[in-house]
Every structure is written in C-alpha cells, then in structure tokens.
Design a protein that fits this description.
single chain; alpha+beta; 3-stranded mixed β-sheet; 4 helices
C-alpha cells in the first residue's frame, strides 16, 4: 500500500486518485495515518461485501419459529 502526505494529496489529487484505483492509498498528516483513499470499484466491492455479510448474519440469526402468516401480513397492510 502506498502512503502519501496530505500536502501531496492537495497538490495533485488526480495522481492520488489514479494510484487508489488499484489499491488503497494511505493519507498521512504529520506522519500519522489519518485516512484511506480507495477507488470507486474497490469501494463498491467493499460495500457489497459488507451488505452481503450483514444479510447472511441476519438470516443465520433469524428465528423462523416466530413467523407471521402471509395472509395476516396482507390484512395488516390493508392489501386484501
């Protein structure tokens, strides 16, 4: 992973964004890592992965013994 200073990011943001397309770029302020810059494709993959993880966890933890019949849901929503 590449690290750049915040000054370098301010000076040439296009270069930093281009570098972040393939892998995250760490942004440092006074030699302390403050943030990560990631390309849009990687960000979208990360978001998708997190959403899938949350969904799988919810399904795994669901109590299928406590279900409401579809007909009752339809009536409750006034869709009958």
């Amino acid at each position: 992973m590449t690290n750049i200073s915040i000054s370098q990011l301010k000076t040439n943001p296009a270069k930093a964004i281009k570098e972040a397309t393939d892998a995250p770029v760490g942004v440092q302020k006074r030699n302390k890592l403050e943030a990560y810059l990631v390309g849009s494709e990687l960000f979208e993959k990360l978001v998708s992965y997190v959403e899938d993880y949350i969904d799988k966890k919810a399904v795994k933890e669901a109590d299928y013994k406590k279900v409401t019949p579809l007909d009752d849901v339809i009536k409750e929503l006034g869709l009958d």
